[in-house]
């Protein structure tokens, strides 16, 4: 594991395979780098796979008093790290949710670095919908944060409660998610680092996402982009990915009718096949 210290933040990143071309994976809000374990192992044949933190998400660390973040600061932190990881070469960005937003913004802001983007359920504009949107509103009122903290602390202490909550509030079909072998296999890998994360840092990013909007950057994303989204996404409405399909110059949209916010788990075989085919079609 390697780290990058910038503006008081320390972001960590890890290489999982070697190759001439680099693929950088960025996770979503409240997750961590280890959530990509399955995808990195599956895509190692495409090159040098690297996983990168979001700010404040363990094992990343934030400066003392970290309680405010805006879109410009988030992108500055991540793009600084992407440049360092790229090391003068070209990269494919792979991101989920907030990571998908960062991946698309990086393509717009670093056209000399980013060759392709795979954005899974990307946040395009805030606020979020569903339970996370409720939290965004709740934390703006007195006494809202302690309730948020308590619920997240329970998810850190009770893995069964966390998995139930993901099924109920992130997936497109809670009953199917409860039986999903991909989600079940992933849980033991990413849960230990989730338990060690600072809940206040989650809240800071969630608050920032309420005001994010990368639509002004869309026309600058000149590279090929694959947008994967679930039609039943309760967190980022499918309208956002459809908007990208209409406004990104070289976008392909894969819309999964029965999936929610985690289509790469909920419809793993379909998404895997689509990603492999797209990477072949967009060979560098």
Can you summarize this structure?
This protein is an alpha/beta fold. It is 45% helix and 17% strand.
Q: How does this structure look, described?
A:
The protein is an alpha/beta fold and 284 residues long. The chain has one domain: Rossmann fold (3-Layer(aba) Sandwich). Helices cover 45% and strands 17% of the residues. It contains twelve helices and eight strands. The protein has an eight-stranded mixed sheet with strand order 1-2-4-3-5-6-7-8, with helices on both faces. Helix 3 links the parallel strand 5 and strand 6. Helix 2 packs across helix 3 and helix 5 packs across helix 6. The longest helix is centred in the first third of the chain and has 16 residues. The protein is globular and about 50 Å long. The mean pLDDT is 97.
CATH architecture: 3-Layer(aba) Sandwich
Largest sheet: number of strands, sense, barrel closure? 8 strands, mixed
Mean pLDDT: 97
Helix content: 40-55%
Key terms:
single chain, 284 residues, alpha/beta, Rossmann fold, eight-stranded mixed sheet, 45% helix, 17% strand
Write the layout of secondary structure elements.
Elements: E1 2-6, E2 9-15, E3 22-26, H1 37-43, E4 48-52, H2 71-86, E5 91-96, H3 98-109, E6 114-120, H4 130-138, H5 144-157, H6 159-169, H7 174-178, H8 181-195, H9 199-209, E7 225-230, H10 238-247, E8 251-256, H11 263-266, H12 268-281
Parallel strand pairs: 3-4, 3-5, 5-6, 6-7, 7-8
Antiparallel strand pairs: 1-2, 2-4
């Amino acid at each position: 594991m390697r780290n990058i210290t910038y503006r008081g933040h320390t972001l960590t990143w890890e290489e999982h395979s070697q190759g001439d071309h680099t693929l950088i994976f960025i996770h979503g809000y409240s997750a961590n780098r280890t959530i990509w374990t399955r995808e990195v192992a599956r895509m190692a044949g495409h090159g040098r796979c690297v996983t990168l933190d979001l700010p404040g998400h363990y094992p990343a660390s934030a400066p003392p008093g970290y309680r405010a973040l805006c879109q410009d600061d988030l992108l500055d932190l991540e793009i600084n790290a992407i440049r360092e990881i790229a090391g003068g070469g070209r990269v494919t960005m792979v991101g989920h949710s907030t990571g998908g937003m960062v991946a698309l913004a990086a393509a717009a802001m670093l056209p000399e670095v980013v060759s392709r983007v795979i954005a899974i359920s990307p946040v395009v504009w805030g606020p979020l919908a569903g339970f996370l949107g409720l939290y965004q509103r709740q934390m703006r009122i007195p006494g809202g944060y302690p309730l948020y903290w308590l619920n997240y602390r329970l998810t850190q202490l009770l893995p069964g409660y966390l998995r139930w909550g993901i099924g109920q509030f992130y997936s497109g079909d809670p009953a199917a998610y409860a039986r999903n072998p991909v989600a079940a296999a992933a849980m033991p890998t990413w849960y230990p680092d989730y338990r060690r994360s600072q809940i206040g840092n989650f809240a800071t990013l969630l608050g920032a996402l309420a005001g994010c909007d990368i639509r002004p950057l869309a026309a600058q994303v000149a590279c090929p982009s694959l947008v994967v989204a679930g039609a039943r996404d309760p967190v980022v409405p499918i309208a956002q990915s459809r908007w990208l399909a209409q406004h990104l110059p070289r976008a392909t949209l894969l819309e999964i009718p029965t999936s929610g916010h985690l289509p790469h788990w909920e419809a793993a075989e379909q998404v895997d096949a689509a990603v492999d085919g797209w990477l072949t079609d967009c060979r560098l």
